[in-house]
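Lecture 7, part 2: worked example. A protein chain together with beta-D-glucopyranose.
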Amino acid sequence: MTSHSVWLLVAVAAAIVLGGCAAATPAPTVGPKPTATWIPIPTATPRPTATVTPTPVHDSVAAARAARLGRGVNLGNALEGPSEGEWGMVIEDAFFPLIAEAGFQTVRVPIRWSAHAAAAAPYTVDPVFFERIDHVMTQALASDLNVVINMHHYDELFASPDEHADRFVAIWEQIAGRYEGMPDTVYFELLNEPHDRLTTELWNPLLARVVSVVREIDDHHTLVITGADWGGLDGLERMVVPEGETNAIATFHSYDPMIFTHQGASWVGPEIGTLGVTWPGPPEHEIELVGAARETEWVAAWFLRYRSLQGDANPASRAALATMMDRAAAWRERKGIPVWLGEFGAYETADIDSRVRWTTAMREEAEDRGIPWAYWEFGAGFGVYDREAGAWREELQGALIPPGGE
Ligand code: BGC
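Predicted complex, written out as structure tokens:
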């Protein structure tokens, strides 16, 4: 019996147990996560239905699974930190029902596996860390959310691709082995934003290699793949889809324009340090550029256009976002592979009205083209949820999940 069928049996057994008596008896332990929580728990409030329509041209498993991703949110700044909590965010069980009840269908869970695996072959993943991931995934599934687990911030791989390629593949071998039996609402995203020395030339063959290794273990979960150059559209257009892979979704990220979405963020260069950049352009008030912005040619040129161009011609316009989404949709049509906007968001340093306008525009332009998405992120600096207040940031939440289920 495959572990897939074991899981089915466990789920059926758990359903019988749950249906038959009020107190759930623990299901027998098989595999990593054998609890009754696989059964979708009905939520008290009716969930708004997503309006992301299935990709019309592709009648495939991958297209259906992409459409099912619908509206999602990233649980960022937690498990992809050096250790969970180090960046101020710990994933709480209570987040999942909250997220589901708010109308999201999917959580993307960024994970820094590389900080929890041995440095030497066979690169064993820390079993305690695995158990933590098991728990997070189980909680997501218990709230009837799709869960995309990824490999995030493998910085050593980006710096030394040749040295880390075997370890990268070996870690995926373990992840695939552990989660092969999970429901198909689990998705494996192989690598977040390849960049630095992991160029397109090196990434394409490594992607093919990791896909073939995962596929030897697991031929049924949907894989999420991406291009180099930070997972943007340029990289996607240069990505070579691994031969024979038919159950994959291609993901791209967009924070365009970075000068607006990442203004003053600590992890970007000083040329992005000018505050007060509103969206859309041109700005109503004069903006004082920081020195590094004035001195960086492309940034200075961007501001010139941002200050002077009206309407669709402005680089901070809805038309610019629409053009980008058109490119993503065109790639999907050419390749016959669904696309997913796996990250987009505007940081807290931007004014809230501009953030709401930009977030609304991004969501609408994606959904108009049947592109499912996941907002970056839930409860930290881009947060749609205010953890201190224990409440949704209503304007942002409304930008993502419009009231009335439009
Ligand atoms: C990075 C985060 C960052 C976000 C926005 C993500 O891919 O992993 O660290 O906050 O993009 O820049």
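Strands lie at 71-74, 106-109, 146-150, 186-189, 222-225, 248-253, 339-343, 373-375, 385-386, 391-392. The two ends are 44 Å apart (CA to CA). Keep this in mind for problem set question 3.
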